[in-house]
């Protein structure tokens, strides 16, 4: 919304609020049994006019004033929404006066119609809803003018930095670098993915054993979600990701929520007032407070796509040290996942979770998610693409004689069921073998493959 549009909207609001207040006062003075709601409408519109008059004194060439205007502007900002609301409210209050040249009968008929309209207002919830909205928009405008809610960009960044505990972006960047062109596309064609992306389902669980490429796939899918959001151009659809890691030795529930709300604040370039107060008091929010903050931030969004990668690694290292079962996430993270999918406060959340298929996560996801297994022929084809791409791209492999290259590719392609990580480690090992020892190394690779296939009942 440009400055001229804002000025026009503010002027229109002042005029309409004055008209509405005038009509209300007429009924209050004239009709003995007027609806009590008219008094509230009268007071709110008179005060709204005063607040909007304050907006007229803001100067575009003043940095602070321009920041206030930017906060309130926009097609769905408080000023525009306030104008729409008061227009609807005015339409509920027809003028009781007839044109000056009307007959006494016409004036009486007009007045009677107005009384009927007042009786309808008393029974209808629409006027109450409009009044609540008008009060909220007026308060937002008033607080912004006073500077109570106005934060500079540097203040928003400072609070967001204080909010976040763990930054998973290095893991995301590293995973993106490992993605091989052409891999992961099989997910995009699946019914489960498209149902989730089109909001037909709310939760998608991608599960597979360690080394099957879940992390790289998650990074690829995150990028696809972001591209979809950009194509739609909807400022009210956001995407936030989080990567769990056993290296952090922590329960990831609170770090995940702190990252989630900090990212939403960054993307909105705004911080809720109660978060600002927590920051000023130096009090970090707890789990339930974070869920409450998330609920507040969702109010202005249409949808929020959330991706949690490697959920089984929440507190995994501590489990190892305590000699507990490996890969059992602390229940608080799973409770948060469950809450996001079952609590009506978070109905705008679309959740994608990746993990190993252990029983604890399976129990949590049961009944709330659609599942995609990484144990399938499409993943095996992705592994083949990865093998050939790496053999063709690294200079060390290009120096091999063609027969060695063919033997290695053939053997590795037969071991696709062992997953990306095993293939990658094996290629690293072969890369360090001198040419004179390469034939023996490839022979050992084939022998190991035969032994492994016998234990797995897989034909070679």
From TrEMBL:
<keyword id="KW-0677">Repeat</keyword>
<protein>
    <recommendedName>
        <fullName>Nephrocystin 3-like N-terminal domain-containing protein</fullName>
    </recommendedName>
</protein>
<feature type="domain" description="Nephrocystin 3-like N-terminal">
    <location>
        <begin position="182"/>
        <end position="321"/>
    </location>
</feature>
<dbReference type="InterPro" id="IPR056884">
    <property type="entry name" value="NPHP3-like_N"/>
</dbReference>
<dbReference type="InterPro" id="IPR027417">
    <property type="entry name" value="P-loop_NTPase"/>
</dbReference>
<dbReference type="Pfam" id="PF24883">
    <property type="entry name" value="NPHP3_N"/>
</dbReference>
């Amino acid at each position: 919304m440009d400055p001229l549009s804002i000025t026009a909207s503010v002027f229109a609001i002042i005029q309409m609020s004055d008209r509405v207040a005038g009509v209300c006062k007429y009924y209050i003075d004239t009709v003995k049994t007027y609806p009590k709601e008219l008094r509230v409408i009268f007071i709110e519109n008179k005060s709204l006019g005063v607040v909007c008059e304050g907006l007229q004194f803001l100067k575009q060439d003043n940095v602070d004033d321009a920041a206030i205007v930017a906060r309130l502007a926009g097609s769905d900002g408080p000023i525009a929404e306030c104008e729409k609301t008061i227009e609807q409210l005015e339409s509920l209050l027809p003028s009781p006066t007839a044109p000056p040249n009307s007959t006494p009968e016409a004036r009486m008929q007009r007045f009677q119609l107005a009384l009927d309209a007042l009786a309808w207002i008393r029974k209808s919830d629409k006027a109450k809803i409009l009044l609540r909205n008008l009060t909220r928009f007026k308060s937002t405008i008033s607080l912004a003018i006073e500077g109570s809610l106005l934060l500079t960009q540097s203040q928003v960044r400072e609070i967001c930095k204080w909010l976040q505990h763990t930054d998973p972006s290095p893991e995301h960047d590293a995973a993106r670098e490992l993605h091989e062109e052409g891999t992961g596309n099989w997910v995009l064609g699946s019914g489960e993915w498209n149902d989730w992306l089109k909001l037909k389902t709310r939760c998608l669980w991608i599960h597979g054993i360690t080394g099957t490429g879940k992390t790289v796939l998650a990074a690829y899918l995150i990028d696809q979600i972001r591209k979809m959001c950009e194509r739609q151009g909807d400022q009210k659809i956001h995407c936030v990701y989080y990567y769990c890691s056993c290296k952090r030795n922590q329960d990831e529930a609170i770090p995940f929520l702190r990252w989630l709300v900090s990212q939403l604040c960054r993307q909105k370039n705004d911080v809720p007032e109660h978060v600002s107060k927590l920051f000023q008091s130096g009090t970090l929010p707890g789990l339930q407070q974070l869920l409450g903050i998330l609920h507040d931030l969702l109010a202005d969004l249409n949808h929020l796509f959330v991706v949690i990668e490697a959920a089984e690694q929440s507190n995994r290292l501590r489990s190892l040290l305590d000699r507990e079962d490996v890969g059992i996430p602390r229940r608080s993270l799973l409770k948060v996942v469950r809450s996001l999918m079952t609590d009506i406060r978070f109905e705008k959340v679309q959740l994608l979770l990746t993990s190993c298929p252990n029983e604890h996560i399976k129990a949590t996801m049961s009944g709330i998610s659609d599942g995609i297994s990484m144990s399938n022929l499409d993943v095996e084809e992705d592994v083949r693409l990865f093998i050939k791409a790496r053999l063709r791209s690294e200079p060390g492999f290009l120096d091999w004689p063609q027969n060695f290259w063919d033997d290695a590719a053939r053997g590795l392609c037969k071991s696709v069921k062992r997953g990306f990580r095993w293939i990658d480690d094996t290629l690293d090992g072969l890369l360090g073998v001198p040419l004179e020892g390469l034939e023996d190394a490839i022979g050992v690779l084939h022998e190991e493959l035969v032994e492994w296939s016998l234990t797995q009942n897989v034909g070679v």
